[in-house]
Amino acid sequence: MSRPIVTRFAPSPTGMLHIGGVRTALFCWLFARKHGGRFILRIEDTDLSRSTDDNIRIIEEGMAWCGLTWDEGPVPGDPTAWIGEHGPYRQMQRMESHYKPAVEKLLSEGKAYRCRCTKEDLDARRATVEAKGVPFQYGRGHDAGNGCRHKQHDASEPFAVRLAMPEGHETWLDEGAIAWTDLIKGRLAFPAESLDDWIIARTGEKGQIGVPTYNFCVVVDDTGMNVSHVLRGDDHVSNTPKQLALYHAMGFEQPQFGHVPMILGKDGAKLSKRHGATSITEYQEMGFLPAAVRLALARLSWTPKVDGQAPESAEEELLTDAQMIELFDLKDIQKSPARFDMDKLVWMNQKLIQRASWQELEPHLAHFMPDAWKNKSEDWKRVAIQATQKGKSLKEMAQALAFCWQAPESFDEKAVEKFMTAAVKPALREVASLHDYEHDALQTAFNGILETQGLKLKDLAQALRVALCGQPVSPPIFDTLWLLGVEEVRTRLQRWL
RNA sequence: GGGGCUAUCGUCUAGGGGUUAGGACACCGCCCUUUCACGGCGGCAACACGGGUUCGAAUCCCGUUAGCCCUACCA
Does pTM top 0.90 for this prediction? Predict the structure, then answer.
């Protein structure tokens, strides 16, 4: 009875990989992983004018960076290859093999028909109807009699193909409505009369079927790829009844639908560039860990429950991927939209950075480091990472280590005035003469210096920071010295002695 | 205009007839401290509005308002 769990994420390559899309993909991925099912990545490139190969690459890279691995889908970088038994996974490559036969079948069965109305004609009809303050519906209402539904057009002239939608009395309807039980929103119903005959295939070359539209391809593909659960954005709710009519016309088994709420910006409007970063790539560049992005995104609209209990402490908020997969349940997803909370992402990122090992952090951090980074020893990297692991982002960690690659070109005036006192100079000279920078040795040496000079550690540490980094801020002072090394410290100290 | 969805602290949310309406982030305060941070402790802060139903409504019903989605030969 229950079929194998298969979910899919089907972005269109018409721009950046949007953070909202990633969240939807994440839910699909979590759901598939939770149930031991498969997760498919499908490229919806039927919008010829806006789809590009470059955007497909961005999607593939973004998904990979996020750790959202797909079981079926395109092979990154190779348009002709794919993994999975139901390919190809780029819609334009399915035209002849899948879509056209499906359109022809519908045509021959009289469930769809050829339409010769031109774009201009339609625009004019729409304008006159809407001028009366009435919604335009193709061939219905005030447009009744103008449609091609009963005209039996042949293929001798260019034509688009429309699906004959139910008119209200069909037996498969639920009290005249197309209805379904949404996995997230519960029962949803749309009056049949509110839908009109929509285009399933655009106008093609004379006598030919044109490129099918989104709503058509989705149904053919989801069926052909055995998708069992269609988890997608809320914005598709209104498309569902159209698709349901198509499932019925084609005699396909329906998948289950789950519409996840949208992600809004701080001001409650749909998340857009205006709110800052929307593309997943930007989050990578800002120094977020993929795991933090996954957590933050998942926690928008989803509340994990452990024995029916929502998180009751900061600790419980910080779920690992394994925990998310184990706890994931569609019934714990909110019906209402959530606003994107950058502060929380930052907090999660910081926490995840703190609890990661330096080895786990290294590959991610390397992205933000100069070439010199890879020439450093393991030991050096370990100390560098551990000394800055309190940072909010990888980028911040990298900035905190910037002093390692470049001697200060200027010095914070106030800091110089405050810390570079006459009293501290002798101590600075003594530090310059030190040659063992191991932590314990420095500790001992500093204790001695501090005592003989009558200084507090704070006085010496701050003076050193100013001299070495140009500012009164740096990692713990012993680490700062060790990372720079004896020679470099002496060089930078020279001008202050 | 039509159809659909939604509504608890600033934000993410728990709760779903009787609770001091709980937690997290952010913010504020105190403590710790070799800088910046981290950390610890504490504080501020919410049931959109109006009607019902009920002994009792944040919770159930109706309406209003607001926001969002669809209403394309976009996806």
Answer: yes
- CA/C1' separation A307–B14 (Å): 13
Q: List C-alpha distances in Å: A360 to A22, A289, A323, A354, A386.
A: 23, 10, 19, 11, 12
Q: Do strands A263-264 and A338-339 pair parallel, antiparallel, or not at all (unpaired)?
A: parallel
> Protein A243 CA to nucleic acid B16 C1', in Å?
34
Nucleotide nearest to A159 (CA to C1'): B73
Q: Are A89 and A43 in contact (CB under 8 A)?
A: yes
| Token pair listed for A28 | 């699909």
Which residue has the closest alpha carbon to B73 C1'? A202
Residue A462: CB less than 7 A from any atom in strand B: yes
Q: Is A72 helix (H, G, I), strand (E, B) or coil?
A: strand
Q: Which nucleotide is nearest to A337 (CA to C1')?
A: B6
Judged by DSSP in three states, A191 sits in strand
CB atoms under 10 Å from CB of A463, counted, come to 26
Structure letter (DSSP) for residue A96: I
ipTM of the complex: 0.94
Collapse the DSSP code of A419 into the 3-class scheme (helix H, G, I; strand E, B; otherwise coil) and give the result.
helix
The Cα–Cα gap between A243 and A237 comes to 10
Strand B-proximal residues of A, range 354-373, CB below 7 A, are: 354
Q: Which of residues 33-62 of A touch strand B (CB under 7 A)?
A: 44, 46-47, 50
d(CA A218, CA A126): 27
From CA A367, how far away is CA A352, in angstroms rounded? Answer: 18
Residue type, A201: A
pLDDT tens sequence for chain A (497 residues): 578 999 999 999 988 899 999 999 999 999 999 999 999 999 999 888 888 999 999 999 999 999 999 999 999 989 999 999 998 999 999 999 999 999 999 999 999 999 999 999 999 999 888 888 888 899 988 898 889 999 999 999 999 999 999 988 899 998 889 999 999 999 999 999 899 999 999 999 888 999 999 999 999 999 999 999 999 999 999 999 999 999 999 999 999 999 999 998 887 777 777 777 889 999 999 999 999 999 999 999 999 999 989 999 999 999 999 999 999 999 999 999 999 999 999 999 999 999 999 999 999 999 999 999 999 999 999 999 999 999 999 999 999 999 999 999 999 999 999 999 999 999 999 999 998 999 999 999 999 999 999 889 999 999 999 999 999 999 999 999 999 999 999 999 998 88
Chain B nucleotides with an atom closer than 7 Å to a protein C-beta: 1-8, 10-15, 22-26, 34-39, 67-75
